[in-house]
Write a structure and sequence with these properties.
Layout lengths: L2 H16 L10 E2 L8 E3 L3 H7 L3 H9 L8 E7 L3 E6 L1 H12 L14 E5 L14 H16 L3 E5 L7 H13 L1 H4 L5 H14 L1 H16 L2 H25 L18 H10 L3 E4 L2 E4 L8 E4 L7 H15 L4 E5 L5 H13 L8 E5 L4 E2 L16 H16 L7 H21 L7 E2 L2 H4 L7 H17 L14 H11 L1 H11 L3 H20 L9 H24 L9
Parallel strand pairs: 5-6, 5-10, 10-11, 12-13
Antiparallel strand pairs: 1-2, 2-4, 3-4, 7-8, 8-9
Helix pairs in contact: 4-18, 4-21, 6-8, 6-9, 6-10, 8-9, 12-13, 14-15, 17-20, 17-21, 18-20, 18-21, 19-20, 20-21
Length: about 575
């Protein structure tokens, strides 16, 4: 349920009844301390000057009109006009019982569904995926799942670079080596280095490579066949990573640079017709107010740049895909590029003003020394190798806890290892750099996926011992611990809504950690299946535990992390 909007509606009515007009939207905040209630409204202060009176008097007048016979049980005025709000146990109990019976735990589908394009991952076709692609892939996939869960139409776009000078070199080397027999493309890194070495050392080969670039661009069938073969093998490497990482990108989501190639001349022409282009040192550019560096869309030699392709992609997504919101999950170093491209796209009318364009920036993954994550010899860590290591380390972390069969251990290790890699990223503000620490990631304590998976597994163990029908149980809040836990669970919809609006997956992970922590306190202090416990109390507590498990499961699934029934 949307608790905050429900409280805001009640307060809006209280303002009307009191004859006082609130300034702007009524925003409800969670109380910072238990003695301040469950929620707090602190928007009275701006009204004091307007009405030329003491803010406490205004707050008291508004509070006197707040209905306290439903969701809100008690209100108090504190400090310089804060309204503290306590919610009713009876009402929360009814909402929680209703949520338990619903597979979405009463999280409504949005009434304003949008078409949302999420551009993420973006691997390089000339190399294997490395750790630099990890954050974009994980964050983008979590956001796509979140939007879908809330009822939006999500279009995933995996924008890959497959068009340019280097591909003439690679295709020429592919033909020269007869790779269909040798299998050299099993290691794209080695293949690229070998092609580049020959390009630098063999003038004849270099000329052939340059000729291939032109032939590819002109649609030469033979060169295109080789190019398509190279791209296909490269994409197979990517899909292997996506499968192991358990993300929802598929080959159908790929939109390569070449897809927009035919539109690039039209982009330049339309910018000229809109009187936005200027010639600078032979290049066609768009100068934006306040920026000394222009957006170059065509070089003096006629070549196009990333900005040109990005403008074509924006126009396609806005006009063909009818996107209401377009998100680019790309590292923070590209912020100035996307700001400029977004400005040009909207000035040129390629994208309607009402279409929301967002650069979902993120920081760098660092090692324990605080430096960018590298191999011991300073090379780039291949993503597939990192994920393989995650599975090995996960086995070590869990194998001593239970007597698992080999099959169980493999299944658990994948869920734990991949979950740990994802959660380490999604548990911190995406704009921050973060330290990649295996020991911390695979700990049963603290804000980790393993802690949440363990909390879920513990609840499943309890539910397995219960002999009744959990679905028939009614939740009746019995004390402050249960009030806190039930209220925490019922905040789920508000949390998902905020995470969706702000594009911040860490909002969800922080919430899930709070739910799991509150459950552990409840579990320790309120026995669930204790001998001699009253039937109604036992049923209520088992229902609360089940509702917590459902919440953790749904939240982790949105983040792309699997739960475990046994751990």
């Amino acid at each position: 349920m949307k608790i905050k909007s429900h409280i805001a509606t009640i307060l809006q009515e209280a303002f009307i009844q009191s004859g006082i007009e609130p300034q702007g939207e009524i925003v409800i905040h969670e109380a910072t301390k238990a003695q301040f209630g469950d929620y707090q409204y602190n928007g009275i202060m701006p009204l004091a000057k307007l009405y030329q009176t003491n803010p406490r008097e205004i707050a008291t007048k508004v509070a006197s009109h707040i209905q306290t016979d439903g969701l809100i049980e008690k209100v108090e005025v504190a400090g310089a006009g804060f309204i503290n709000i306590w919610l009713s146990d009876d009402t929360l109990s009814r909402y929680a019982t209703k949520a338990l019976a619903d597979e979405r735990i009463d999280v409504a589908l949005t009434s304003q569904a949008q078409t949302i394009v999420v551009d993420y991952s973006g691997p390089n076709m000339a190399k294997e995926m490395h750790v630099g692609h990890l954050r974009s892939t994980i964050i983008g996939d979590a956001l796509a799942k979140l939007f879908e869960f809330l009822g939006h139409r999500v279009i995933r776009q995996n924008h890959i670079g497959d068009w340019g000078t280097q591909f003439g070199m690679l295709v020429a080397y592919l033909e020269a080596q007869g790779v269909e027999q040798s299998g050299e493309l099993q290691d794209l890194e080695a293949f690229y280095k070998a092609a580049k070495k020959r390009f630098d050392e063999d003038a004849h080969f270099a000329n052939t490579a340059r000729e291939y670039v032109v032939k590819i661009q002109q649609g030469d069938r033979h060169c295109l066949t080789l190019w398509e073969r190279f791209i296909g093998i490269s994409l197979n490497h990517c899909q292997e990573v996506y499968h192991k990482l358990d993300v929802s990108l598929s080959a159908q989501d790929v939109r390569a640079e070449s897809f927009y190639n035919e539109d690039l001349p039209r982009i330049v022409t339309d910018l000229e017709n809109a009187h936005l282009l200027q010639i600078s040192q032979g290049a066609k550019c768009v100068f934006l107010e306040g920026d000394e560096i222009p957006v170059i869309v065509q070089k003096g030699d006629g070549g196009y740049l990333y900005a040109t392709t990005d403008l074509a992609a924006l126009r396609y997504r806005a006009t063909k895909l009818k996107a209401n919101r377009i998100l680019y999950v790309v590292d923070a170093r590209q912020s100035s590029h996307f700001k400029a491209v977004f400005d040009v796209a909207q000035k040129a009318g390629f994208v309607p003003q009402e279409t929301k364009l967002e650069h979902i920036a993120f920081g760098t993954m660092m090692d324990k020394s605080g430096k960018p994550f590298k191999t011991r010899d300073g090379g780039t860590v291949k993503l597939i190798e990192l994920l393989d290591e995650a599975l090995i380390r996960a086995k070590e972390a869990i194998k001593e806890r239970e007597n698992y069969s080999q099959g169980e251990l493999e299944t658990l290790a994948k869920a734990v290892g991949i979950g740990a890699v994802k959660y380490a990223d999604l548990s911190i503000n995406r704009e921050s750099n973060y330290i990649f620490d295996w020991d911390k990631m695979l700990s049963f304590e603290g804000n980790t996926s393993l802690y949440l998976q363990y909390a879920y597994a513990r609840i499943q163990s309890i539910l397995k011992k219960y002999e009744g029908d959990v679905g028939a149980c009614e939740i009746v809040i019995g004390d402050a611990i249960e009030h806190t836990l039930v209220l925490s669970v019922l905040k789920f919809e508000d949390v998902l809504t905020k995470a969706s609006l702000d594009a911040t997956p860490h909002t969800i992970s922080a919430y899930l950690y709070d739910v799991a922590t509150d459950f552990m306190k409840f579990y320790e202090q309120n026995p669930i299946l204790k001998e001699g416990l009253e039937k109604a109390t036992k049923e209520s507590r088992i229902a609360i535990a089940s509702l917590c498990a459902k919440t953790i499961q749904l939240g982790l699934e949105i983040l792309g992390i699997k739960v475990l029934n046994r751990l």
